[in-house]
């Protein structure tokens, strides 16, 4: 990166699991974080809360780790973070930071931006691919790790589906959310999940609200994680009363998402949720086709395209 060049990396918000797709399914939304990098005599970070403006910032640490993997020397940066993604957890705020740091390091390397390699790096950093895959590629993704390499497929989401994101003013610790999930399940539960994961993927592709309603009922993690979210049951009830097709915990929470088969239903869900408590962050989101986009201030742009998977 030349001294006066500004690199802006735009990364979409994401939702992991989509109910039954624990640690495998992920979806990108049209809510995007924009993180700008320029060379600097010393590390400067702005645009984010004060507690993140230091060398422990996830954008910076991801950039440094990626440089090490690429055999490059990290250089001080002025990093400006502009993100509308709530920090309560569940919409991929950490994934946007990880992916942006990796993308910045790759831009400085001989090989340049490589989404497939970036996914391997990000999965290695995060431990699982469900959030970072849609952050890089956009769309609806299904991913698994095979021999250290992350394999990802991507699908388009049907027009007409709307996703009401509801974030409470408290967080759920990801480590706590993982601790409450059973480490072993019965064969019956495994079969239950597999059939419904395929069905939910098909329902999102085709816009089949009835199939989504029947299939998107998780037994693997949500029955345990909902106990960490005090408002879960009431918000689920009012969303279902407004005819949402499904109501899921986004990632490990605390954000929740009501999936609706029309914008009218989505607005009704949002209004109902406001009555539960007045300090909720509520936004109606649409799926994002584009994943990570890299833009230099000279207008050059790089991004992942649909046929790259």
TrEMBL record:
Pathway given in the UniProt record: Amino-acid biosynthesis; L-threonine biosynthesis; L-threonine from L-aspartate: step 4/5
GO CC annotations, alphabetized: cytoplasm
One MF annotation (Gene Ontology) recorded for this entry: homoserine kinase activity
Reactions this protein catalyses: L-homoserine + ATP = O-phospho-L-homoserine + ADP + H(+)
Binding site for ATP: 86-96
GO biological process: threonine biosynthetic process
InterPro entries assigned: GHMP_kinase_C_dom (IPR013750), GHMP_kinase_C_sf (IPR036554), GHMP_kinase_N_dom (IPR006204), GHMP_knse_ATP-bd_CS (IPR006203), Homoserine_kinase (IPR000870), Ribosomal_Su5_D2-typ_SF (IPR020568), Ribsml_uS5_D2-typ_fold_subgr (IPR014721)
EC number: 2.7.1.39
Subcellular location: Cytoplasm
Functional description taken from the UniProt entry: Catalyzes the ATP-dependent phosphorylation of L-homoserine to L-homoserine phosphate.
Family statement drawn from the similarity comment of this UniProt entry: Belongs to the GHMP kinase family. Homoserine kinase subfamily.
Record-given protein name: Homoserine kinase
Gene (name only): thrB
């Amino acid at each position: 990166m030349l001294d006066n060049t500004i690199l802006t990396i735009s990364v979409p918000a994401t939702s992991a699991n989509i109910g039954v797709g624990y640690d495998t399914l992920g979806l990108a939304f049209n809510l995007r974080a924009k993180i700008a990098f320029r060379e600097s005599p010393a590390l400067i970070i702005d645009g984010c809360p004060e507690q993140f403006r230091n060398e422990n910032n996830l954008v910076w640490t991801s950039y440094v780790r990626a440089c090490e993997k690429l055999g490059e020397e990290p250089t001080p940066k002025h990093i400006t973070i502009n993100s509308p993604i709530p920090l309560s957890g569940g919409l991929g705020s950490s994934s946007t930071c990880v992916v942006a740091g990796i993308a910045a390091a790759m831009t400085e390397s001989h090989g340049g931006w490589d989404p497939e390699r970036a996914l391997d790096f990000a999965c290695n950093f995060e431990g699982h691919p469900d959030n970072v895959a849609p952050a890089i590629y956009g769309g609806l993704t299904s991913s698994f790790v095979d021999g250290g390499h992350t394999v990802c497929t991507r699908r388009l989401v049907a027009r007409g589906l709307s996703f009401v994101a509801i974030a409470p003013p408290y967080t759920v610790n990801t480590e706590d959310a993982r601790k409450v999930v059973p480490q072993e399940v019965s064969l019956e539960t495994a079969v239950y999940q597999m059939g419904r994961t395929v069905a939910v993927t098909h329902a999102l592709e085709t816009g089949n609200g009835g199939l989504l309603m029947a299939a998107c009922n998780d037994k693997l993690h949500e029955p345990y994680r909902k106990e960490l979210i005090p408002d879960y049951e009431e918000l689920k009830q009012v969303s279902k009363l407004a005819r949402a097709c499904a109501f899921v915990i986004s990632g490990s929470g605390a954000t929740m998402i009501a999936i609706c088969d029309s914008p009218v239903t989505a607005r009704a869900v949002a209004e109902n949720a406001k009555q539960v408590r007045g300090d909720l962050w509520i936004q109606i989101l649409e799926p994002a086709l584009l994943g990570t986009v890299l833009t230099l201030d000279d207008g050059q742009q790089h991004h992942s395209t649909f046929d790259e998977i």
